[in-house]
Amino acid sequence: MGKMINSVRGPIDIDSLGVTLTHEHLWFDVATLYKRAHPDLVMTDEKVTKENRKEILRDLHSVVFEYEDNLCFNDVGMTVKELESFKAAGGQTIVEVSTADIARNPLKLREIAEKAGINVIMGGSWYWFPSLDDDFRDFIMTQGKNKVADILIKEIYEGVGDTGIKPGIIGEVGNGDYEGTDIIYHAAAIAQKETGVPVICHSPDLHVLDIAEEEGADLSKFVMGHWSLLCPMEEAFRRGAFVSVDQFGMNFPGIESDDERVGAVLRAFELGYEKKLLLSQDVCWKVRLKQFGGGGYAEIFDSVVPKIRAKGISDAEINSLFTDNVKRLFM
Protein backbone atom coordinates (compact mmCIF):
# COMPACT_ATOMS: atom_id res chain seq x y z
CA MET A 1 0.00 0.00 0.00
CA GLY A 2 1.28 3.46 -0.92
CA LYS A 3 0.77 6.83 0.70
CA MET A 4 -2.82 7.57 1.72
CA ILE A 5 -4.56 10.80 0.70
CA ASN A 6 -7.70 12.32 2.17
CA SER A 7 -10.67 12.16 -0.20
CA VAL A 8 -14.30 12.99 0.51
CA ARG A 9 -15.07 9.25 0.65
CA GLY A 10 -12.20 8.54 3.00
CA PRO A 11 -8.47 7.88 2.61
CA ILE A 12 -7.37 6.59 -0.79
CA ASP A 13 -4.09 5.07 -1.92
CA ILE A 14 -1.98 7.43 -4.01
CA ASP A 15 -1.82 4.75 -6.71
CA SER A 16 -5.60 4.95 -7.15
CA LEU A 17 -5.57 8.62 -8.20
CA GLY A 18 -5.28 7.80 -11.89
CA VAL A 19 -6.04 10.55 -14.41
CA THR A 20 -6.56 13.66 -12.30
CA LEU A 21 -7.62 17.25 -12.89
CA THR A 22 -6.08 19.36 -10.15
CA HIS A 23 -8.11 22.59 -10.25
CA GLU A 24 -11.87 22.19 -10.63
CA HIS A 25 -15.16 23.15 -8.97
CA LEU A 26 -18.15 20.85 -8.45
CA TRP A 27 -20.26 22.58 -5.77
CA PHE A 28 -19.91 26.29 -5.00
CA ASP A 29 -21.56 29.71 -4.82
CA VAL A 30 -19.47 32.55 -6.18
CA ALA A 31 -22.53 34.82 -6.47
CA THR A 32 -22.79 35.23 -2.71
CA LEU A 33 -19.07 35.96 -2.55
CA TYR A 34 -19.40 38.83 -5.02
CA LYS A 35 -22.48 40.19 -3.28
CA ARG A 36 -20.66 40.31 0.05
CA ALA A 37 -17.65 42.02 -1.48
CA HIS A 38 -19.70 44.36 -3.69
CA PRO A 39 -22.97 45.24 -1.91
CA ASP A 40 -24.05 47.49 -4.78
CA LEU A 41 -23.67 44.78 -7.41
CA VAL A 42 -26.95 44.14 -9.23
CA MET A 43 -27.50 40.60 -10.50
CA THR A 44 -30.21 39.20 -12.71
CA ASP A 45 -32.19 36.12 -11.74
CA GLU A 46 -32.36 35.03 -15.39
CA LYS A 47 -31.32 31.40 -15.73
CA VAL A 48 -28.40 30.28 -17.90
CA THR A 49 -29.42 28.70 -21.21
CA LYS A 50 -27.68 27.73 -24.42
CA GLU A 51 -29.45 30.66 -26.02
CA ASN A 52 -28.10 33.37 -23.68
CA ARG A 53 -24.62 31.83 -23.32
CA LYS A 54 -23.06 34.14 -25.90
CA GLU A 55 -24.50 37.22 -24.20
CA ILE A 56 -23.20 36.10 -20.80
CA LEU A 57 -19.69 35.63 -22.20
CA ARG A 58 -19.70 38.98 -23.99
CA ASP A 59 -17.71 40.62 -21.20
CA LEU A 60 -15.76 38.50 -18.71
CA HIS A 61 -15.28 41.46 -16.38
CA SER A 62 -18.92 42.46 -15.97
CA VAL A 63 -21.71 40.55 -17.74
CA VAL A 64 -20.47 37.11 -16.71
CA PHE A 65 -20.86 38.14 -13.05
CA GLU A 66 -24.31 39.66 -13.50
CA TYR A 67 -26.00 36.27 -13.92
CA GLU A 68 -26.34 34.79 -10.45
CA ASP A 69 -27.27 31.39 -11.85
CA ASN A 70 -24.02 31.29 -13.82
CA LEU A 71 -22.01 31.51 -10.62
CA CYS A 72 -23.62 28.70 -8.62
CA PHE A 73 -23.28 24.93 -8.91
CA ASN A 74 -25.84 23.70 -6.39
CA ASP A 75 -27.45 20.71 -8.10
CA VAL A 76 -25.92 17.30 -7.41
CA GLY A 77 -27.70 15.69 -10.34
CA MET A 78 -26.47 18.34 -12.76
CA THR A 79 -22.86 17.92 -11.69
CA VAL A 80 -23.00 14.12 -11.69
CA LYS A 81 -24.41 14.21 -15.23
CA GLU A 82 -21.65 16.58 -16.33
CA LEU A 83 -18.99 14.28 -14.88
CA GLU A 84 -20.05 11.44 -17.19
CA SER A 85 -17.88 12.85 -19.98
CA PHE A 86 -14.90 13.19 -17.62
CA LYS A 87 -15.22 9.57 -16.55
CA ALA A 88 -15.76 8.38 -20.13
CA ALA A 89 -12.50 10.11 -21.09
CA GLY A 90 -10.66 8.06 -18.46
CA GLY A 91 -10.83 10.58 -15.64
CA GLN A 92 -10.68 9.16 -12.13
CA THR A 93 -10.00 12.03 -9.71
CA ILE A 94 -11.04 15.66 -9.34
CA VAL A 95 -9.22 18.03 -6.99
CA GLU A 96 -12.05 20.33 -5.90
CA VAL A 97 -10.67 23.71 -4.84
CA SER A 98 -13.81 25.52 -3.65
CA THR A 99 -13.18 27.18 -0.30
CA ALA A 100 -15.28 27.92 2.76
CA ASP A 101 -16.23 31.40 1.54
CA ILE A 102 -17.63 30.08 -1.74
CA ALA A 103 -19.90 27.55 -0.06
CA ARG A 104 -17.67 24.47 0.09
CA ASN A 105 -19.96 21.61 1.10
CA PRO A 106 -18.22 18.38 2.16
CA LEU A 107 -21.42 16.32 2.29
CA LYS A 108 -22.51 17.38 -1.20
CA LEU A 109 -19.04 16.67 -2.55
CA ARG A 110 -19.15 13.19 -1.05
CA GLU A 111 -22.57 12.60 -2.60
CA ILE A 112 -21.27 13.75 -5.99
CA ALA A 113 -18.22 11.49 -5.71
CA GLU A 114 -20.34 8.48 -4.77
CA LYS A 115 -22.91 8.97 -7.51
CA ALA A 116 -20.35 9.82 -10.21
CA GLY A 117 -18.04 6.97 -9.19
CA ILE A 118 -14.91 9.11 -8.97
CA ASN A 119 -12.44 10.31 -6.35
CA VAL A 120 -12.90 13.88 -5.13
CA ILE A 121 -10.15 15.54 -3.11
CA MET A 122 -11.54 18.51 -1.23
CA GLY A 123 -9.71 21.74 -0.50
CA GLY A 124 -9.62 23.93 2.54
CA SER A 125 -8.83 27.62 3.07
CA TRP A 126 -10.34 30.96 2.07
CA TYR A 127 -10.43 32.50 -1.37
CA TRP A 128 -11.08 36.25 -1.21
CA PHE A 129 -10.52 38.32 1.93
CA PRO A 130 -13.18 41.00 1.14
CA SER A 131 -15.86 38.31 0.86
CA LEU A 132 -15.33 36.94 4.37
CA ASP A 133 -17.80 37.97 7.04
CA ASP A 134 -16.78 40.80 9.37
CA ASP A 135 -16.18 38.56 12.37
CA PHE A 136 -13.83 36.24 10.52
CA ARG A 137 -11.92 39.11 8.93
CA ASP A 138 -11.48 40.53 12.43
CA PHE A 139 -10.34 37.11 13.66
CA ILE A 140 -7.69 36.92 10.95
CA MET A 141 -6.40 40.42 11.59
CA THR A 142 -6.37 40.19 15.39
CA GLN A 143 -5.50 36.54 16.05
CA GLY A 144 -2.91 36.17 13.29
CA LYS A 145 -1.41 33.42 11.19
CA ASN A 146 -1.00 30.71 13.82
CA LYS A 147 -4.63 30.74 14.92
CA VAL A 148 -5.75 30.70 11.29
CA ALA A 149 -3.38 27.81 10.60
CA ASP A 150 -4.91 25.92 13.53
CA ILE A 151 -8.26 25.90 11.69
CA LEU A 152 -6.69 24.37 8.58
CA ILE A 153 -4.72 21.81 10.55
CA LYS A 154 -7.77 20.75 12.59
CA GLU A 155 -9.81 20.21 9.41
CA ILE A 156 -7.07 18.09 7.82
CA TYR A 157 -6.67 15.89 10.90
CA GLU A 158 -10.27 15.77 12.18
CA GLY A 159 -12.56 16.83 9.33
CA VAL A 160 -14.76 19.82 8.55
CA GLY A 161 -17.20 20.52 11.36
CA ASP A 162 -18.92 17.31 12.42
CA THR A 163 -18.81 15.74 8.93
CA GLY A 164 -15.58 13.83 9.47
CA ILE A 165 -14.69 14.70 5.85
CA LYS A 166 -11.09 15.87 5.59
CA PRO A 167 -9.42 18.15 3.03
CA GLY A 168 -6.67 16.54 0.99
CA ILE A 169 -5.23 19.85 -0.15
CA ILE A 170 -5.04 23.42 1.14
CA GLY A 171 -6.59 25.81 -1.34
CA GLU A 172 -7.28 27.38 -3.56
CA VAL A 173 -5.68 30.04 -1.40
CA GLY A 174 -5.82 33.76 -1.80
CA ASN A 175 -7.02 36.23 -4.37
CA GLY A 176 -6.06 39.89 -4.37
CA ASP A 177 -3.51 42.09 -2.68
CA TYR A 178 -4.84 42.42 0.86
CA GLU A 179 -3.04 42.25 4.20
CA GLY A 180 -5.46 39.55 5.29
CA THR A 181 -4.61 37.48 2.22
CA ASP A 182 -0.95 37.41 3.21
CA ILE A 183 -1.92 36.22 6.69
CA ILE A 184 -3.90 33.39 5.09
CA TYR A 185 -0.90 32.47 2.93
CA HIS A 186 1.30 32.38 6.04
CA ALA A 187 -1.30 30.16 7.71
CA ALA A 188 -1.41 27.85 4.69
CA ALA A 189 2.38 27.52 4.76
CA ILE A 190 2.34 26.73 8.48
CA ALA A 191 -0.38 24.12 7.93
CA GLN A 192 1.55 22.62 5.02
CA LYS A 193 4.65 22.24 7.16
CA GLU A 194 2.64 20.56 9.91
CA THR A 195 0.53 18.22 7.77
CA GLY A 196 2.51 17.71 4.55
CA VAL A 197 -0.62 18.47 2.52
CA PRO A 198 -0.07 20.36 -0.78
CA VAL A 199 -1.11 23.99 -1.24
CA ILE A 200 -2.87 25.20 -4.39
CA CYS A 201 -2.52 28.95 -4.84
CA HIS A 202 -4.87 31.17 -6.80
CA SER A 203 -2.03 33.48 -7.71
CA PRO A 204 1.17 32.62 -9.61
CA ASP A 205 2.90 35.49 -7.75
CA LEU A 206 6.32 34.40 -6.45
CA HIS A 207 5.64 36.41 -3.28
CA VAL A 208 3.69 33.34 -2.16
CA LEU A 209 6.84 31.23 -2.33
CA ASP A 210 8.70 33.84 -0.29
CA ILE A 211 6.07 33.41 2.43
CA ALA A 212 6.29 29.62 2.22
CA GLU A 213 10.07 29.76 2.51
CA GLU A 214 9.85 32.11 5.49
CA GLU A 215 7.57 29.62 7.29
CA GLY A 216 9.77 26.63 6.49
CA ALA A 217 7.17 24.97 4.26
CA ASP A 218 8.06 22.55 1.48
CA LEU A 219 8.04 24.56 -1.76
CA SER A 220 7.73 21.35 -3.77
CA LYS A 221 4.22 21.05 -2.33
CA PHE A 222 3.12 24.46 -3.63
CA VAL A 223 1.16 24.84 -6.86
CA MET A 224 1.30 28.22 -8.56
CA GLY A 225 -2.17 28.40 -10.05
CA HIS A 226 -3.73 30.20 -12.98
CA TRP A 227 -0.71 30.47 -15.27
CA SER A 228 -0.83 33.54 -17.49
CA LEU A 229 1.56 35.21 -19.91
CA LEU A 230 2.77 37.28 -16.94
CA CYS A 231 3.58 34.21 -14.83
CA PRO A 232 7.31 33.83 -14.01
CA MET A 233 7.14 30.14 -14.87
CA GLU A 234 10.86 29.40 -15.03
CA GLU A 235 11.58 30.98 -11.64
CA ALA A 236 8.68 29.10 -10.02
CA PHE A 237 10.03 25.83 -11.41
CA ARG A 238 13.57 26.68 -10.34
CA ARG A 239 12.42 27.20 -6.77
CA GLY A 240 10.79 23.78 -6.75
CA ALA A 241 7.11 24.66 -7.11
CA PHE A 242 4.59 23.21 -9.51
CA VAL A 243 3.03 25.47 -12.14
CA SER A 244 -0.61 24.90 -13.02
CA VAL A 245 -1.92 25.74 -16.47
CA ASP A 246 -5.48 25.32 -15.36
CA GLN A 247 -7.87 27.47 -17.38
CA PHE A 248 -8.04 25.40 -20.56
CA GLY A 249 -11.39 25.94 -22.24
CA MET A 250 -11.58 29.63 -21.35
CA ASN A 251 -11.20 30.84 -24.92
CA PHE A 252 -12.78 34.20 -24.28
CA PRO A 253 -11.75 37.81 -25.02
CA GLY A 254 -9.42 39.40 -22.51
CA ILE A 255 -7.52 36.33 -21.31
CA GLU A 256 -5.04 33.85 -22.73
CA SER A 257 -6.21 31.43 -25.41
CA ASP A 258 -5.83 27.67 -25.33
CA ASP A 259 -3.17 28.00 -28.02
CA GLU A 260 -1.17 30.24 -25.67
CA ARG A 261 -1.71 27.76 -22.85
CA VAL A 262 -0.45 24.96 -25.08
CA GLY A 263 2.58 27.17 -25.69
CA ALA A 264 3.17 27.25 -21.93
CA VAL A 265 3.06 23.45 -21.84
CA LEU A 266 5.66 23.28 -24.61
CA ARG A 267 7.81 25.84 -22.78
CA ALA A 268 7.82 23.66 -19.66
CA PHE A 269 9.08 20.75 -21.76
CA GLU A 270 11.74 22.96 -23.36
CA LEU A 271 12.94 24.06 -19.92
CA GLY A 272 13.08 20.44 -18.73
CA TYR A 273 10.46 21.00 -16.03
CA GLU A 274 7.61 18.97 -17.50
CA LYS A 275 7.51 16.85 -14.33
CA LYS A 276 6.45 19.95 -12.36
CA LEU A 277 3.55 20.87 -14.64
CA LEU A 278 -0.15 20.36 -13.88
CA LEU A 279 -3.09 20.84 -16.24
CA SER A 280 -6.75 21.55 -15.54
CA GLN A 281 -9.74 23.66 -16.64
CA ASP A 282 -11.17 25.56 -13.64
CA VAL A 283 -14.79 24.92 -14.62
CA CYS A 284 -16.51 27.59 -12.52
CA TRP A 285 -19.34 28.99 -14.66
CA LYS A 286 -22.47 27.17 -15.83
CA VAL A 287 -21.87 28.43 -19.36
CA ARG A 288 -18.86 26.09 -19.45
CA LEU A 289 -20.95 22.98 -18.82
CA LYS A 290 -21.98 20.74 -21.71
CA GLN A 291 -25.70 21.17 -21.15
CA PHE A 292 -25.29 24.91 -21.63
CA GLY A 293 -23.11 24.69 -24.73
CA GLY A 294 -19.68 24.51 -23.11
CA GLY A 295 -17.00 21.85 -23.25
CA GLY A 296 -17.60 20.46 -19.77
CA TYR A 297 -15.17 18.57 -17.57
CA ALA A 298 -13.70 16.58 -20.47
CA GLU A 299 -12.93 19.54 -22.72
CA ILE A 300 -9.22 19.30 -21.95
CA PHE A 301 -9.17 15.70 -23.22
CA ASP A 302 -11.42 16.34 -26.20
CA SER A 303 -9.92 19.59 -27.49
CA VAL A 304 -6.59 20.34 -25.81
CA VAL A 305 -4.75 17.02 -25.67
CA PRO A 306 -4.91 16.67 -29.49
CA LYS A 307 -3.28 20.11 -29.81
CA ILE A 308 -0.47 19.13 -27.43
CA ARG A 309 0.00 15.84 -29.27
CA ALA A 310 0.18 17.69 -32.60
CA LYS A 311 3.13 19.68 -31.22
CA GLY A 312 5.19 16.51 -30.80
CA ILE A 313 4.47 15.58 -27.19
CA SER A 314 3.93 11.82 -26.94
CA ASP A 315 0.84 10.16 -25.49
CA ALA A 316 2.96 8.75 -22.66
CA GLU A 317 4.28 12.22 -21.82
CA ILE A 318 0.79 13.71 -21.95
CA ASN A 319 -0.62 10.97 -19.72
CA SER A 320 2.16 11.61 -17.22
CA LEU A 321 0.99 15.21 -16.81
CA PHE A 322 -2.35 13.95 -15.49
CA THR A 323 -1.02 10.99 -13.49
CA ASP A 324 2.64 10.84 -12.48
CA ASN A 325 2.92 14.58 -11.89
CA VAL A 326 -0.10 14.53 -9.60
CA LYS A 327 1.42 11.66 -7.63
CA ARG A 328 4.64 13.67 -7.28
CA LEU A 329 2.65 16.54 -5.78
CA PHE A 330 1.01 14.29 -3.19
CA MET A 331 4.01 12.01 -2.53
UniProtKB/TrEMBL annotation:
Residues at which a divalent metal cation 1 binds: H23, H25, E172, D282
Signal peptide: none
Protein name in UniProt: Resiniferatoxin-binding phosphotriesterase-related protein
InterPro entries referenced in this protein's UniProt entry, alphabetically: AryldialkylPase_Zn-BS, Metal_Hydrolase, Phosphotriesterase
Free-text comment on the cofactor: Binds 2 divalent metal cations per subunit.
GO molecular function: hydrolase activity, acting on ester bonds; zinc ion binding
PANTHER family assigned: PHOSPHOTRIESTERASE-RELATED (PTHR10819), PHOSPHOTRIESTERASE-RELATED PROTEIN (PTHR10819:SF3)
Keyword terms, alphabetized: Hydrolase, Metal-binding
Pfam short name (any one): PTE
